[in-house]
Amino acid sequence: MSLVTDSETPVAAGAENAAPGIGDGPRHVAIIMDGNGRWAQARGRPRLFGHHAGARRVREVVECCPALGIKYLTIFAFSTENWKRTQVEVAGLMSLFRRYISKEMKALAAKNVRVRFIGDRVRLDTKLVQLMDALEHETEGNDGTHLTIALNYGGRDEVARATQRLAQDVADGKLDPADVDQETLPRYLDTHVLPDPDLVIRTSGEARISNFLLWQSAYSEYEFIDTLWPDFSSDELARLCQNFGNRDRRFGAVKK
């Protein structure tokens, strides 16, 4: 199911991307927040200690977005593959998500942050889903930073679920197969009200995208950095945004 309200106006894929050129900063930044476990283990602490440190880092990054011109921030919190981790770690992460939402709800609303969740909620526990719904409702009128949290999310899973909905509309006679093109599927994705990400950042030194925003990041710029997520700072984000502004984005066109 789609995790955003049907009353919102969909954004066409790439519709808000900047025109090709140099000098504009990213409006939509997506982050694969990696390295929490290694950060904790380097300090002789359990992996969950690192996850808690990483959660605190999220607040700083969200708060610095307006000054950097970032309107949309999408963070990868828990993937469909993360269920393969130990039961202790998964249970600890679910507890952390519940605690984070409960603790940050009023602060996010007060800072004019609009929060959405993407991913499949079916496997999540009822209490967590209720908190997710409450946070979305509490912030739905805000028009500052748009924070999207990918929770039990996988890019392939998202495309599969979107394709199922599209196929059902074809079967119901609501959609003509001859009308399906590359602009059709994005309307069925979890992110259908968001512009595509301009910049995707992965922390911790790993150089892979880990099934994150596969469709949406077709023309995104990527930054793979060595910093572990709990050590990531607003200064580093500002540097990466500046680097982005120096890139020549042509989206397949030839520079004139």
Give the topology, please:
Elements: E1 28-32, H1 36-41, H2 47-68, E2 72-79, H3 87-110, E3 114-118, H4 126-139, E4 146-153, H5 155-171, E5 199-202, E6 221-224, H6 234-245
Parallel strand pairs: 1-2, 1-5, 2-4, 3-4, 5-6
Helix pairs in contact: 2-3, 2-6, 3-4
Explain what you see:
This protein is of the alpha/beta class and 256 residues long. β3, α4 and β4 form a beta-alpha-beta unit. The chain starts with 27 loop residues before the first strand and ends in an 11-residue tail after the last helix. The N terminus is likely disordered. Strands 3-4-2-1-5-6 form a six-stranded parallel β-sheet, with helices on both faces. The radius of gyration is 18 Å and the shape is globular. α3 packs parallel to α4. It is built from six helices and six strands, in the order βααβαβαβαββα.
**Which descriptor suits the 3D outline?**
globular
Radius of gyration: 18 Å
- Provide the succession of SSEs: EHHEHEHEHEEH
**Low-confidence spans: pLDDT under 50, at least 5 residues?**
1-7, 12-22
The helix count comes to 6
> How much of the polypeptide forms β-strand, as a percent range?
5-15%
User: Total strand count, please?
Assistant: 6
